[in-house]
Amino acid sequence: MSGDSDCTRTSPSAGSPSDNELLPDRPKYVCSLSPDLVTKAREELQEKPEWRLRDVQALRDMVCKDYPSLGTCLDDAFLLRFLRARKFDYDRALQLLVNYHTCRRTWPEVFNNLKPSAIKPVLESGFVTVLPHRDPEGRHVVCIRPDRWTPSNYPITENIRAIYLTLEKLIQSEETQVNGIVILADYKGVSLSKASHFGPFVAKKVIGILQDGFPIRIKAVNIINEPRIFKGIFAIIKPFLKEKIANRFFLHGCDLNSLHQNIPPVILPEEYGGSAGKLDISAWNELLLASEEDFQHDFSQLVLPCDSSPHDMLVSGDADEKQCDDSLRGMKPQLYYCY
């Protein structure tokens, strides 16, 4: 995610020697997709290799014209993430990019000092990890285990920081940009007191990031060992999920056979009836922690100038946000009822 974020230096007028001197030394994009993934990207994402760089330049021009102070990276590889996530629809890709920055700038508890070493306790707890093997569709499986979190040790925002960094690391892969990811969430042992930390503010923020503020394709969310309390949580959150995302939630309860219909046992650890050995979190933790300098370099470019205030950042209006707040405010009484 390297590159100059100054739009005045990214679109010089043609033919001027002085302008050419101002061109940033931008890394040249080299496609790492296999022939099969190139075909998949063409069929599913409307990505045409012969037009790819033209599309990236079009998005770059839109950023510089409409959001010159956004402070974003403008490298080909970085902008491609947003185009792929929105099937090369320029307007939707631009909105996603703007939302990505808005989310980062409006939630300092999550995004300040965001680096792997800062969330090491979360990683060591095993709250979030990535399974070592991809599924048959080439998708990484992100495993989240809320029971590994002890609220008295650190706030829930630390968990969100760990999940976010995990997604940032995964989306660096072009293969993941095309194939997307699968989430496996194990809610075994989640109590009412622990669930209450996921309040209206946190719920709305997380939904906003996952749906409209991050360039990743979430293809399925598999919930395992969910207690009755989860049905109450999901019933409240579901109206604010887009229909496509809501339809990708699968509640398996304690039925491992049901889980195995979505995620094959061959890639699952023994804890979930699989044959891939014990769940090992060390490999992913080491990979993420080894990326410290890369993250520091990348995130250092995503800084909003102090005199700038991007407008029209979020796709949902004030009325929708108020409705979300009012509905989610009733979460706790309903949780007690479900519990």
Descriptive overview:
By secondary structure, the chain is α/β, with parallel strands linked by helices. The protein has 2 domains: 35-106, N-terminal domain of phosphatidylinositol transfer protein sec14p (Helicase, Ruva Protein, domain 3, Orthogonal Bundle), CATH 1.10.8; 113-292, 3-Layer(aba) Sandwich (Phosphatidylinositol Transfer Protein Sec14p). 48% of the residues lie in helices and 7% in strands. The protein contains 18 helices and 5 strands. Strands 1-2-3-4-5 form a 5-stranded mixed β-sheet, with helices on both faces. α3 (52-66) packs across α4. The longest helix has 16 residues, at 90-105. The radius of gyration is 21 Å and the shape is globular.
H and E string: HHHHHHHEEHHEHHEHHEHHHHH
- Average pLDDT for all residues: 85
- Shape designation: globular
- What is the end-to-end distance? 45 Å
CATH fold topology of the largest domain: Phosphatidylinositol Transfer Protein Sec14p
> What is the CATH superfamily label of the largest domain?
CRAL-TRIO lipid binding domain
Which architecture of the largest domain does the CATH hierarchy give at level 2? 3-Layer(aba) Sandwich
Alpha plus pi helix count: 18
Residues in helices, as a percent range? 40-55%
Q: Assess the beta-strand content as a share of residues.
A: 5-15%
Kindly state the number of beta strands.
Answer: 5
Count of structural domains: 2
| Name of the level-1 CATH class of the largest domain | Alpha Beta
* Order of strands, widest sheet: 1-2-3-4-5
Radius of gyration: 21 Å
Unreliable spans: 1-5, 8-23, 305-339
